[in-house]
Amino acid sequence: MAAEAVIPVKRQSGKNQAVTMRDVAQASGFSPATVSIVLNNAPLARYIAPTTKKRIEEVAKKLGYRPNIMARFLRSRRSHSVGVMFFDITDPFCTPVLRGIENALYQSSYVPIFADAHNQKNRFERYLEMLLEHHVEALIVVANWLFVDIHLLADLSKRNITAATIGWEMPGDSVSSVMVDNEAGGRLALEHLHQLGHRKIAFIRGPKMLIDSAPRWKGIQKFAHSSGLEIDPALVLQLPDSFDPNSGFEGGYRFTEELLQKKKRFTALMAFDDLTALGAIRALTRAGVKVPEHCSVVGFDDVPLSSLAAPSLTTVRQPLEAMGNLAVNIVMEGVNAGLEKRDWNISQHKMNPELVIRDSTRAAALTGSDD
Amino acid sequence: MAAEAVIPVKRQSGKNQAVTMRDVAQASGFSPATVSIVLNNAPLARYIAPTTKKRIEEVAKKLGYRPNIMARFLRSRRSHSVGVMFFDITDPFCTPVLRGIENALYQSSYVPIFADAHNQKNRFERYLEMLLEHHVEALIVVANWLFVDIHLLADLSKRNITAATIGWEMPGDSVSSVMVDNEAGGRLALEHLHQLGHRKIAFIRGPKMLIDSAPRWKGIQKFAHSSGLEIDPALVLQLPDSFDPNSGFEGGYRFTEELLQKKKRFTALMAFDDLTALGAIRALTRAGVKVPEHCSVVGFDDVPLSSLAAPSLTTVRQPLEAMGNLAVNIVMEGVNAGLEKRDWNISQHKMNPELVIRDSTRAAALTGSDD
DNA sequence: TTGTATGCGTTATCAA
DNA sequence: TTGATAACGCATACAA
Fold this sequence. Notes:
2 copies of one chain form a homodimer.
Chain A: E1 4-11, H1 21-28, H2 32-39, H3 50-63, H4 69-76, E2 81-86, H5 94-107, E3 111-116, H6 121-133, E4 138-142, H7 151-158, E5 162-166, E6 176-180, H8 182-195, E7 201-205, H9 213-227, E8 236-238, H10 247-261, E9 268-271, H11 274-286, E10 296-298, E11 315-317, H12 320-339, E12 345-351, E13 354-356
Parallel strand pairs in A: 2-3, 2-4, 4-5, 5-6, 6-12, 7-8, 7-9, 9-10
Antiparallel strand pairs in A: 11-13
Helix pairs in contact in A: 1-2, 1-3, 5-12, 8-9, 10-11
Chain A binds a DNA duplex through helix 2 and helix 4.
């Protein structure tokens, strides 16, 4: 595998001669100080003659001057970069979040430094080190479970680095966070099944390790209680803890097989997340139970592949891109506050989920009518 | 949608007091120069007394000294960062590549600066600008089509920045590249169908815009020719050019509908890539044609969702992670060569694809036996 | 074997 | 309205 044909081609070499501010100063006939003031549009730029400004800007453009962020940092302490740490980019959950973060950062001319912890604590810490060395102005952590000690925090706030987490919140209230309202989401999903007339519903709960699991289940229980729906404990399973974000598929598959073996009838299945749901659908299909004809299935997250699945998946959407966006806004607020020596507020956000109805659910009245 | 509950919490403030090399010097009783030499293990470190070394290292660790990459850059011209530019991270193709790049970079203690062009030329150029401002030591571009002018190159090599592309190669031979051997891949897929006994095969070719399309088709034609397989032009369609990486699904769906309307029988369908294949499968299923019972379908790429699809997809795997890895090795070689003022070779690599047989294909002899 | 001095490209303070 | 100069943190040539 991956043997390869190499076609060596030609040689390279060259000189690295970036044009500096001094070059612009010399070429324009002004001093570096003036050039700096003009090009940064500093407060003092108010007092610079318009003709001077114009001249300097022209020369800068003609020479192709680019500010040297590194040198600038030495004085201004601004790196124009933000650390973006994923616990595992392999999780399909992450891509839209990354897109949201990247896009928001781009608007502010900030650059994301990408880090992926591969779910390993030591890798997380090493990356944290590297990000600090690169003097990121802020840190965004995308995770859905916890291995991070509180003390890492101390390090961050000591260095005045604003942080925000997505998909997970620090115990206590020491770091800003953005999460979906899991309880509302759980409720939404069950409500949908209930409205479709389903009464015998199986559940595959999330692993204890994940912070999402408990509130989602709480939303389910609350709705069940308020609507008089009975949850049969024999139809409730809980996924084991695992570090592999794609293990949900496998888990959904196995647990659904298990549910089927119990010979307890259910007309709908609510999975912890989309991958679990997909695994469940495969198990059902293999067992000759058609989705949604014989059994409805609902997921959670609305990861990109959910709309592509067969059947396409009814699910509870997390506004992933918007969450990435919001996290950036939060840390940028912190950055700006720091710059202006203001205090600012840490905040914990719960975004509203949204039910997306697709092909994997249908009315209970129709269930079984096809066979 | 996305209305939200905000829970403001408490306030923050703090002082940013990083410990510098001078601090270490003072605390250890040596000069900054000695400290620098020891901590960087510079050539002169050979002459430093072991006790001195030990003392300095201890103090550095105790104080939590972290080198300031920015300041270091000013002298050494090394930023320890690499620009990683994606044309569209939304393409499922990209995630494993990113993982491969990140992992290789991590081994070398380099940090990836992430950029996503959203398929827009101006965004690409703006990001290029930003990456240059951040003085990345190298650039990796992940793309499968071209909107980049050759002159951007000039800018890079003028600044002595090594570059490599993944999934696409510059016209001419001015930049290193890593691609899959598309021709071999096309051949592999068709060979598989042929071995299964399929003779009436439909094809959905890739858009002209994509560099992969032509060689894949060439591989198909060559195999067909050498094996005596006849390709019915009425069963060959070509996807239109599009900037949306996920449009393949839609295209696969529509074109398969079209193929079905022709009432020309085919027992297998070969799609340009996995997304196209998934779209095709949906169309077939909707039309009552079961996959693989009535029709086999094969894709290309082996993106992460292909194994999760229903049925799981037989496809030609690109070693995406390995490709990311290799690209890093290539640019690192360039970086090191630059450092040592050696010349180095630009190289163009073709990785071997691999057939992954899953549930969407089966022997033609069995085709149709289920209904 | 270790220390001093200098400069990398910017920005900010002060002076002119 | 603009210019000279110092300082940011580090690495190196040279001196000791």
